[in-house]
Design a protein that fits this description.
Elements: H1 15-33, E1 47-54, E2 60-67, H2 73-82, H3 84-94, E3 102-107, H4 110-121, H5 124-130
Parallel strand pairs: 2-3
Antiparallel strand pairs: 1-2
Helix pairs in contact: 1-3
């Protein structure tokens, strides 16, 4: 009898994808915080791992990273890409899954988007609309 998989309507995926993504996020963040990756381009950077999104089959992990201060993002991405085999092996040792997920690194742009929205909310036109109307009758 064939199984019918329902597509999850959750923004981050199914409950299982979210749970595994969080476990992988902790493993990658620990590896980066401990300095386990020996790369000259990563040595001077503190890297935040705010989110990991897993594919539905849990074979691909998209790791969102942000260097402290948002500096040298391209250099950090290149260094992480060079060391992704090592990181994948270390994640496989720390996380008990049937398959070690392939790691893909992306810059987390949520901070830039939040700053853009904040600037928009501070514009004079929006501030004028937010002020309460006075009852002058």
């Amino acid at each position: 009898m064939p199984r019918h998989h329902q597509k999850s309507s959750a923004p981050g995926g199914s409950q299982r994808q979210l749970r595994v993504g969080e476990i992988v996020r902790h493993a990658v963040a620990d590896l980066l915080a401990q300095g386990s990756v020996h790369d000259a381009d990563l040595e001077g950077h503190i890297i935040t791992v705010p989110e990991v999104r897993m594919s539905p089959d849990l074979k691909l992990a998209t790791v969102y990273v942000m260097p402290l201060g948002g500096k040298d993002t391209e250099i950090v991405l290149a260094a992480l890409a060079r060391n992704k085999k090592f990181l994948r092996g270390e994640v496989a040792h720390r996380v008990s899954l049937k398959f070690a997920p392939d790691l893909r690194f992306r810059i987390d742009d949520r901070f830039d988007e939040a700053e853009r929205i904040e600037k928009l909310l501070r514009t004079p036109a929006v501030q004028r609309d937010l002020k309460p109307e006075s009852d002058e009758t």
